[in-house]
Amino acid sequence: MIYEASPIAIGVFVAFVVMVLWISFYFAKRTKNAKDYFAAGGHIHWVVNGIAFAGDYLSAASFLGIAGMIAFYGYDGFLYSIGFLAGWVVALFVVAEPLKRLGKYTLSDALDSAFNSKGIQLMAGISALVVSVCYLIPQMVGAGALVMPLMGLPHYVGVVIVGMIVIFIVATAGMTSTTYVQFLKGGLLIFFSTLLVIAMLNNGMSSTPSADFHQPVTLDATLGDDGAVVAVSDARYEIVAQRQEGSVQLVLLEQDSVQTWWSVTGEGAAVQLQETLSRTMRTDGTVLYNGAPQEDREFFQIGSFSRIIVNGEEVGSIDRVGPFQFLATIQESDVIRFIPVKFNHVGDSVTVWYQTITPGEDLMRPGVRFKIDEGSTLLSKLDFVSLMLALFLGTAALPHILIRYYTVHSQRDARKSTVVAITAIGFFYILTLFLGMGAMVSGVLDVESSNMSAPLLAQNFGIILFACISALAFATVLGTVSGLIVASSGAVVHDLMHHFLGMRLTEKAQVRAGKSVAIIVGGIAILCGILFKDSNVSFLVGLAFAVAASANLPSILMLLFWKKTTAKGITASILAGIVGSLGLILFSPMMWDIYGLGAANAPVPLENPGIISIPFSFGVLVVVSLMTQPKLVTEQAPVMQV
Amino acid sequence: MQHKPAPEIGDDAASMYKTRVGLILFAIYAMAYATFVLINTFTPGLMGQVFLAGLNLAVVYGLGLIILAIVMGLIYNIMCSRAEDRMNHTEDK
Question: Does the beta carbon of B64 lie under 8 angstroms from any beta carbon of chain A?
Answer without folding.
Answer: no
